[in-house]
Every structure is written in C-alpha cells, then in structure tokens.
Amino acid sequence: MFVQKVDRSVNEEFFIEPTTGRKYNIEDSPYFSIQAAFNHQNFWINLDPNREIQNINMNFEEDPDSNWEFVMLQSKKKSSGDDDNGESSEHDDENQDENQEEVLDMPAPWSPKLFVNKDKFMDRCKDGEKTVFYKMCKVDYYSECKQTDGLVRRITLYKDYGRLIVKEVRSEYACRIDKLIVRRRFPYEFKLVEHYESMEDTHWKKLIQIDGHDRKLWFYHHRNKDGLIFRHEQYGYKNPKDIYEQEKNKILEKYKNRPDKLIYRSVVWEKEDKPDNQAIKMKVRWCNDEVVIKKMTQKFELDPHSFRPSGEQIRKTVFDLSTKQG
User: Fold this and answer.
1) Quick one: CA dihedral 153, 158, 163, 165, positive or negative?
2) CB atoms within 10 A of CB 73
3) Residue 138 Cα distances to 119, 156, 168, 180, angstroms
4) pLDDT at 324
5) What is the mean pLDDT of each successive set of 10 residues along the chain, which is 326 residues long?
C-alpha cells in the first residue's frame, strides 16, 4: 500500500506491506512498479507499468507525461468568467452549463458500511487482554482502563529458553493517580525500580529499592518548597565480601535552591543492643524499632549575596553524639 505525502502529519511518501505492516521508503522498497492507484476521488491506471518507482510521478492530475488514465469522469472546475465589475454574465453561465460533461459517480460498495464498536476498539484484543510469547520473553497486553491498577503491558524476561527462571518483570501503567508509568522488578535480586511521570502533583521521579537494605528516591524539583531532590536510605546492609565491615545505617538527603543554602544532610544511626549510661543518646523510632543517632552532618554552599565573606560562611556542621561523657 502506497501512502502519499499530504499537508497534514505525513511529510514523506512511503509504502506499507499489508502482510507484515512494515514501512518502506521509496528508495529502499522491494517493489518494482505501481500498476494502479486510488484515493477518495478517483481510480487511476498506470499506462507504463515498466517504469521504476523512482521514475513514476504520483501527481495524477498534473503528470506532464500523461502516464495515468482515470476511470471515473470528474467535473471540471468552473472558470471565473467575471467581468471588470466582478460580475459574470448570464450568457457565459448558459454556455458553461451546456458544455458541462456528465459525471459518473462511483458505484456503491457491495459490502455494508463498516461499524466498529467503541468498547471493542478500546479492548484491541479479546476479553481485554492477550499474551504473546517470544524467545526467553513473554508479553501480556491489557486494554487501557480495564485493570484496576492501570496495567497496560507486562514484559517478563527469562534467563532460560524454557521460560522458568524469571530475570525481570517490567510493567507499564497508564491513567494512575500517583503517575506511575513503569515498574521493574528483579525477583532474584529483591530489587524494585519505579519511574513516575512529571506532573504538578507528582512527588517522586524515580525509585530504586532493595528489600530490607537500601532505597533511593529522586524527586521532582516542583514537588515542595523544601528543595529536596534526592534521598538515600541505607539500613541493615553489610558487604558480603568484607566480613569485618559492620552494618551501615544511614540516611542521606540532597537539596537544591534553598534560601538557607543547605545542599546536604545525613544521619548515621544504629540499633541499641546494650544500654550505656555514659553516652549522650538521641533515641528515635525507625522502621518500628528504637534506634540511637550517632552522627549528623550538614553541608552548605556559598552564598554570593551574603554580607559575610566566603571565608566566614558556614560550609559544614557535624554533630557527633557517639562521644562518651565522663
């Protein structure tokens, strides 16, 4: 099927193979020539089918070689016939009506008018869902607004050809209140990645989470006035390659465009295993546990509009609560 360039959204001429749906440019198409063409007005026959496609003029009505022959007669456009005063004479109108050719209309099609139910069109598949299997992959399609969670497509990647060991589950969503668009799960890594659409009422931009150990959050700059753009929560994590490394429990935040010029804030904490009355302790609730804050750190950027010189501005503050007092 040949698609001709028009003044709308089609900016180039190309072919579409009906059996596969593949698109071909005119220069790279596997076709040799065009025998006939039609549009909403008429049906044209190529009088020289031996010409290659590159040498065929697809402008049927203005082809200088006259290699196209129309099937249905068309009415000629009426000439203006206006005089100097902008009015046409009655004699010209009568002659024009006499010379007007009779036009043959296209016959009505034998098939009834095509009607597609709106609900069936929105389904795009039987019962609103379908599954397609590929090599080491499975794709589930769902009609929009049919699933309660807004799921429209789920791609499951496998590590084996038998599709038994799941490598990744990628879910795509639409029309969700929280603006979630993509969710990726890695079952054997206990890892979760989420992407959110940029809207005025959207808070998160991206989420990466490892169950029980780590969580990273990227925020949109327009979410709030606090300027928070990144938050990293690391808890109960221990590098398996280093048996002497202790567990890391830390919360890190990064900021941008704050009036107080704060750009970094971190808190290091640990679970209280043994009571120690000789240390200053700040106890808070975290993950349904009572933890003790060991250290807090804040970093600031230079304020070029401050009345204080750069050497006197505060760049970093540290609160070390792990120091024992006598």
Assistant:
1) negative
2) 12
3) 26, 5, 11, 22
4) 56
5) 69 80 80 79 81 73 69 58 51 54 64 79 75 94 88 95 94 90 94 87 82 87 80 73 61 90 89 54 56 88 84 88 60
**Cα–Cα distance measured from residue 323 to residue 326, given in angstroms and rounded to the nearest whole number:** 10
- Enumerate the β-bridge partners of residue 25: 14
Determine the pLDDT at residue 195: 92
Rg (CA), the chain: 36
β-strands 228-237, 43-46 pairing: unpaired
Contacts of 191 (CB under 8 A, 6+ apart): 185, 208, 209, 210, 211
Looking at residue 244, its pLDDT comes to 46
* Dihedral angle, C-alpha 194, 198, 202, 204, nearest 10 °: 40
List phi, psi (to 5°) of 3. -110, 120
**Residue found by looking up tokens 């005089």 in the block:** 83
Locate 230 and state its tokens: 């990144």
pLDDT value, residue 112: 84
Q: Show the CA angle centred on residue 324, arms to residues 318 and 326, nearest 5°.
A: 130
Spatial neighbors of 137 by CB under 8 A, at least 6 apart, are 155, 156, 157, 158, 163
Q: Do 197 and 179 contact (CB within 8 A), yes or no?
A: yes
Read off φ and ψ for residue 92, nearest 5 degrees: -65, -35
Q: Which residue has the tokens 């925020």?
A: 219
pLDDT value of position 183 = 95
